[in-house]
Amino acid sequence: MKKILLTAVITMFGLTASAKEKEKVAKKDTAEFKVGMHCQGCVNRITNELTYTTGVTDLKVNLNDKTVWVEYKPQKINADSLFSKLKSMGYTVEKK
Q1: What is the distance between the alpha carbons of residues 33 and 61, in angstroms, rounded to a whole number?
Q2: Cα-based distances in Å from 39 to 35, 52, 53, 66, 87
Q3: HEC profile for 1-40?
Q4: pLDDT class of 44 with cuts at 50, 70, 90
Q5: First-last CA distance in the chain
Q6: Positive or negative torsion for Cα 42, 64, 50, 47
Q7: Pairing of strands 29-35, 93-95
Q8: Are the C-beta atoms of 35 and 50 separated by less than 8 Å?
Q9: 56 has pLDDT over 60
């Protein structure tokens, strides 16, 4: 009986680890935008807003070339939604 219970517990933890590993290697896409930002405040605002957006996994905002690069999980969000989010913040936005 103890052996069966121990096997069940090990199997359960093994399945949990597998699910977590699958999530880590889940497909990710990227999008790059040219954004009409003018100062470090714009960079901070965009960074703060997109960092906490569901599905965004990585983000780079470059003031010098006015670009925003976003890595995201397509099952959670898409490039059009990110584009719209930047526009709704009041910036001019172009897809690169």
Answers
A1: 10
A2: 12, 21, 22, 10, 17
A3: CHHHHHHHHHHHHHHHHHHHHHHHCCCCEEEEEEECCCCH
A4: very high
A5: 62
A6: negative
A7: antiparallel
A8: no
A9: yes
